[in-house]
Amino acid sequence: MTNHNPEQFVDFLSSVTFFSDVSKKSLLQLSKHLKVETYDKKDCIINKGEVGDAMYVILKGEVKVHDKEHLYIKLSSSECFGEYALIDDEPRSASVTALEETTLLKLGTRHFVELISTDRGFAMGILSVLIKRHRELDIIQESLTVSKRELEIANSKMMGLINGAMDAIIMFDSNFRIVLANASAKDILQNADVNQRNVLFFFEDEDAKMLEDLVASNAEGKVDNMNTYLPKVVKVIGSQERETLNEGTISSYGTGQEIYYTLILRSIEERLQAETKISRLTNQTKYLQEEIKELTNDYGIIGQDKSMRNLLKLVEQVAGTSATVLIQGETGTGKELVARAIHKASNRAERPLIRVNCGAIPENLIESELFGHEKGAFTGATASRKGRFLLADNGTIFLDEIGELPLALQPKLLRVIQEGEFDPVGSSNTIKVNVRIIAATHRDLFDLSNEGKFREDLFYRLNVFPLQVPALRERGKDICLIANQMIRQYGKNLNKAVAKLSKEEEKLFREYHWPGNVRELQNLVERAIIVSQHGEVDWLRIIPNSNLTASASSGMEAERIFSAEEWLEMERANIRRALRHTNWKISGEKGAASLLGLKPTTLTSKIKALGITRPI
Q1: How far apart are CA 181 and CA 195, in angstroms?
Q2: 3-class DSSP assignment, residue 246
Q3: CA atoms within 13 A on the CB side of 353
Q4: Whole-angstrom Cα distance, residue 478 to residue 157?
Q5: What would the pLDDT profile of 82-123 be if each residue is shown by its tens digit?
Q6: Is the alpha carbon torsion for 216, 222, 225, 230 positive or negative?
Q7: Would I find NADP among this entry's keywords (predicted)?
Q8: Which residue in 39, 160, 237, 542 has a CA-CA distance of 20 to 30 Å to 592?
Q9: Are 430 and 421 in contact (CB under 8 A)?
Q10: Vertex 281: Cα angle to 277 and 286 (nearest 5)
Q11: How far is Cα 305 from Cα 562, in angstroms, rounded to an integer?
Q12: Could you give the dihedral angle defined by the CA atoms of residues 135, 139, 142 and 143, in that order, rounded to the nearest 10 degrees?
């Protein structure tokens, strides 16, 4: 504290805002009560929490108003602090510290009150300044009110955008406590009140650990201003155990302890469903392309024999109707080609033809294959599936080997034929379809119905328009026409040109029994092209037992003696023909054993001894 001349501070005090309207006479009286105090750098002038007893005017130097390390403001010459101590005895709300050597004018509360009471001019001057300050505060308050309103509008717009966003937006602090979540976030979290909950609770352990590592890296300064995609898809587990897969981004803002993170998640469930649908459609397209290609090649149905011309006339007659067709014939006669011809000539030709081999699908799966199933309908049903009947809607379904359809499933097929509707496995929703049914079999369905192995009512529903496909051996010269067409086709595919059949070779083809029909012919020709040399094929070695036929036709010695190896080969070939003729049925009235005049046990032993196996 130093002595001073009161008059020397009058002009200085006039420049101080707090005393700007006080007369010099009153300021002179004020100066008589002022004390001069000097503080060194970093000296504490006021401690937060102390009760004030004076106000200060900075004569020279600079101070800071602060709360520990937090700085509120810096003040310099002619500025005041501590004015509230003049009118109350409340604890100081902040500390004041000198930033450099500072000289202050200190006015005690008791002297200020005395001047207000005794000096009217002083009181009027102070009151005038306070009124001005009050007006300024009103203006500031009005400006703040407008700013607050604008801020509220801006905040409302921002919250509208956040809540209207389809992506889930979750904001959380450095302790992983949620501070904000929009409507989409509350939906995937299945919780309307998520504030202050730990965000990690809603993630699978592995994904929660990933988020913890990202936040830790940001806190340690390894990531600056984090704004990045999540490195992998995360699984969100809602409060009601619903699981969703999401991709997203995470960003941070703030410094020190006040760091917040914004997590934006986008569900990929719909995208996965779309990808699954695309995959399914791609597979369906591939399936349809393979189905169209299978067994058709370029030769299609070749038939000049009377039996085939009559069959094709019947095909033309029935194609334009919606009648159910039952195609009968031995295995390998081309029943599927006939079905395709019916479909192609019908008004459904632009729609799919869906093929189902009822004998090739396991009994426990065929119902799902035909009619589809719902997710969870049975063990392994991880997703819903559309059946072949729905795939064939407005088109045609070809039920090959219909005689192999399980008896328990036949009423459901009968319902589709009669009512045009079915229920998928595991579903109570009935699906209506408009499907034309073409069935095929190599078995006698009438006999099967008499034996109780096939529903009689279903047989009559299928047998509306029966077609009998003749065996290849019954088609005369068609055998050679088809063979020559196949020779050209496989020669082109295998890049091996082979001459067409000669007259002698055609005779070999016509005299062979062809128990495997067109399919056997197709396999035989393909094998012949593969083993051909220099464009020539030794058909005598290719056609089963043709060496005997050639020997007889050329007048060779009738009483030829065969070696043991040749005899075994002949017996093996003969048994194979019998098995193919009976579709590999061994016992029974129409079995191979009966055809060969052997006991079933004897035939079984021979099959094993000769190493005969059924082709796949």
Answers
A1: 7
A2: strand
A3: 26
A4: 81
A5: 888 887 778 888 999 999 999 999 988 888 888 888 888 888
A6: negative
A7: no
A8: 542
A9: yes
A10: 150
A11: 38
A12: -160
Are 6-138 and 298-470 equal in CATH topology? no
Task: Report the candidate in 471, 472, 468 with the shortest Cα–Cα distance to residue 483.
Answer: 472
Taking Cα atoms as reference points, which of 178, 244, 176 lies closest to residue 212?
176
What is the reported pLDDT for 224? 60
CA distances (Å), origin 62, targets 39, 81, 82, 96? 10, 12, 15, 10
Query: How many beta carbons lie within 10 A of that of residue 97, not counting itself?
Result: 17
CB 301 within 8 A of CB 316: no
What's the CA gap between 340 and 355, in Å, rounded? 10
Longest dimension (CA), the chain: 160
Mean pLDDT of 54-80: 91
Phi, psi of 280 (to 5 degrees): -65, -40
Q: What is the CATH number of domain 6-138?
A: 2.60.120.10
Q: DSSP E strands: which ranges in 451-536?
A: 465-468
C-beta separation of 415 from 455 below 8 A: no
At 544, phi and psi to the nearest 5?
-55, 130
Question: Residues 25-51: what's their mean pLDDT?
Answer: 89
Using alpha carbons, select from 607, 569, 610 the residue that is nearest to residue 591: 607
Tokens of 433: 């379809």
Residue 299 contacts residue 486 (beta carbons within 8 Å): yes
Does pLDDT of 140 surpass 60?
Answer: yes
| Residue 285 near residue 192 (C-beta atoms within 8 A) | no
601 burial (CB, 10 Å; 0-12 / 13-18 / 19+) is: exposed
Distances (CA, A) of 327 to 314, 336, 460, 478, 597: 11, 9, 13, 20, 31
In the structure encoding, which two tokens stand for residue 379, read together?
Answer: 């063990």
Indicate the domain borders of the chain: 6-138, 165-267, 298-470, 561-616
Closest CA to 91 of 52, 44, 45, 46: 52
Cβ pair 571, 606 in contact under 8 A: yes
Residue whose pair of structure tokens reads 């830790």 in the numeric block: 216
Q: Work out the angle between the directed axes of helices 478-493 and 517-531 (0-180°, nearest 10).
A: 40
Under 8 Å between Cβ of 298 and 489: yes
Q: Which CATH architecture has domain 561-616?
A: Orthogonal Bundle (1.10)
CA–CA distance, 481 with 299 (Å, rounded to integer)? 10
Q: Answer whether CATH 1.10.3720.10 is correct for domain 298-470.
A: no
Closest of 258, 240, 155, 250 to residue 202, by C-alpha: 240
DSSP state of 43: -
Q: Which residues contact 259 (CB under 8 A, 6 or more apart)?
A: 173, 174, 218, 219, 252, 253
- 167: which 2 tokens? 């992506």
- Express each pLDDT in 348-390 by its tens digit: 988 889 999 988 888 888 888 888 888 766 766 667 778 889 8
- Count of C-beta atoms within a 10 Å radius of residue 295: 17
Instruction: Return the ∠ at Cα 292 (arms to 287 and 297), rounded to 5°.
Output: 130
